[in-house]
Amino acid sequence: MNEHSGIEVDLAQLRTRTSAKWTSFPEDVLPAWVAEMDFSLAPPIAQALSSAIARSDTGYRSIGRLPEALAGFCSVEWNWSPDPAHMMVLADVMTGIATTLRFCTRPADFVVINSPVYPPFYSTVRDVAGRNMYDVPLVPDEQGRYGWDLAALDAAFARPEVTAYVLCSPHNPVGSVPTAHELAAIARSAAAHGVFVIADEIHAPLTLAGSTHTPYLQVAGDDARAVSVVSASKAWNVAGLKCAQLIASPMVAEELFASIPLETQYGAGHLGVIAAIAAFEHGEAWRIEMLDLLDRNRYLFGERLIAELPAATYRPPDASYLAWVDVSAYGLGDDPALPLLEVGRVAVNSGPMFGAGGEGHIRVNIGTSAQIIEDIVARIARGTTGSQDAS
Ligand SMILES: Cc1ncc(COP(=O)(O)O)c(C=O)c1O
């Protein structure tokens, strides 16, 4: 641990973890890829899980008071009060997206996404739901903020073959939080053209100082054909426990939920439900400490980049712990992640996997300690020079 925060974990301890982040590369590679954070678990979650283990409470999931706990969190955090009766507990967010796509679209339909975006959006629309992709790329402004191209979205929604839209809010990997104005325009276009909106709001509880997350359903209203998919998994780092919540607008809840197969409805893990209730009811002190750390990390990462990779382009994210960095000036080709792994011994996500606009980019996980951030940037810098002597 260093002096900055009690939730940081040192590298030796992190290397004892057996999750995907820590076991997919050789020991000399520093992992800064998949969206898991390196912090210690929030004490109320650790206690809830330990006491579940102590009483051997590892049977099939019961959702208990999770809908009410989530509604309480939404009310305090966003002044939004979704009805617990309009929530369904599922294994994960991508299951919520896939199952909703099957409900609201037909096989020949087109689904709008905004590249560059979280890679499973592509595979879920195409391979899992068997639908077609319609890309309306995000557009960077003069300050480098990627925003939603509202005119292009409206034109896309007007096409008869387009029937659904998967909105990533806040957006992974660019870190933008859509404004209430952007969301209102999207909701108006979707309503006008009968497009079903699936808002992936998994990163919403990770919105950082200076930005405000607005829940899509709050803007779109009760008559919207829309859902939000949320989870405690990103903000409280419990993705492996498998628990997410689908919140449907009153307009679609009954019909949508009736369409969801039983095995999907029972896919969540019981420990995931226990952890999510603890997160929403008692996880606030830890979340505030963690957000404060992420706030510092996004600027520290920028400072280290300026010092070691001055030709890289980076805008600190407005939410979450994923840094989207353009390193094309270093001439590493379309997919810089490969040479950075081979030479720098640092595992970052490949930009092209996020679709159009990902060439020459990397996504770097900065949900870690200050010390590890410094090591990550040093390794990226070594990787760009082609030097083999990375330690
Ligand atoms: C935008 C977004 N959606 C969905 C997921 C995956 O969530 P889950 O594991 O609950 O399917 C992630 C994971 O990083 C994500 O960033």
Provide an overview of this structure.
The protein folds into two domains: 11-41 and 284-385, Aspartate Aminotransferase, domain 1; 46-282, Type I PLP-dependent aspartate aminotransferase-like (Major domain) (Aspartate Aminotransferase, domain 2). The strands form four sheets. The protein has a seven-stranded mixed β-sheet, sandwiched between helices. The protein has a four-stranded antiparallel β-sheet with strand order 11-12-15-14, covered by helices on one side. Strands 1-13 form a two-stranded parallel ribbon. It has 15 helices and 15 strands. The protein is globular, with a radius of gyration of 21 Å. The model is unreliable at 387-391 (pLDDT under 50). It is of the alpha/beta class and 391 residues long. Pyridoxal-5'-phosphate (PLP) binds next to α5.
List the main descriptive attributes of the protein structure presented here.
binds pyridoxal-5'-phosphate, 4-stranded antiparallel sheet, Aspartate Aminotransferase, domain 1, alpha/beta, Aspartate Aminotransferase, domain 2, 15 helices, 391 residues
